[in-house]
Design brief:
The chain is an alpha/beta fold and about 250 residues long. It folds into 2 domains: about 1-100 and about 225-245, Leucine Dehydrogenase, chain A, domain 1 (Rossmann fold); about 100-225, 3-Layer(aba) Sandwich (Rossmann fold), CATH 3.40.50.720. About 35% of the residues lie in helices and about 25% in strands. It has 8 helices and 12 strands. α4 crosses α5 (about 125-135) and α4 crosses α8. The longest helix has 19 residues, at about 225-245. It is elongated. It starts with a strand and ends with a helix.
Amino acid sequence: MLYFGLIGRSLSHSFSRNFFTAKFQAEQRAADYSLIEIEDISTINSVVAKHGFSGFNVTIPYKESIIPYLDELSAEAKAVGAVNCVVVRDGKTVGHNTDIKGIEASLGWLTINDDTKALVLGTGGASKAVQYVLKKMGVEYKVVSRDANRGDLTYEELTSDVIKEYHLIINATPVGTAPNIEDAPVLDYSALGESHQLFDLVYNPANTEFLKRGEAQGANTMNGILMLQTQAIASWHIWQRELNIE
């Protein structure tokens, strides 16, 4: 039996266990995927040993803070500064970032032109992966944070003029995630129009308040489901390759 899992906090609404359980059953694999909530990332090595993990995913709030506890990082994970997929092989933990694949797949469904400018809401691990992809694509962007020292703009600085200039807005925060489905990032939604595109990394609910408010103004929207599915499949491919799973 192979053991995999998801490490994070508040995982009751997670998609990952159902996704991998269905996948393992469909492929008749002797494998299990569990949800492990931990309060302190410093316990990660004992958690991995206890559960006998061959690999695991990492979610909020540990995508960055797990890095010092890993033995190695892939080149992309090192460049991003965040990890969401870990392989455990020969007693060593190797961190990867498959959020990149998910973000690339999602942005591929949106209209990205040479003059597209983006606002990235949030500064955590997911935001870092978004920034990495935008840089790779050559898209100009600014990071929005509650903390003036961590981003290019604060939410208070998101005037209607700024919003009208940046036609791609990406929510890389957990704001609006179930059960807090009435919450939305604080910005002037009345400044949005048909030329705007909103991408929410949140997937539960599928239609967040952020997206609803954008749709009401005529904006094109995309939720985080494709990203989630893509990063999960990419994680499995890494585990298959690194662990020689047929």
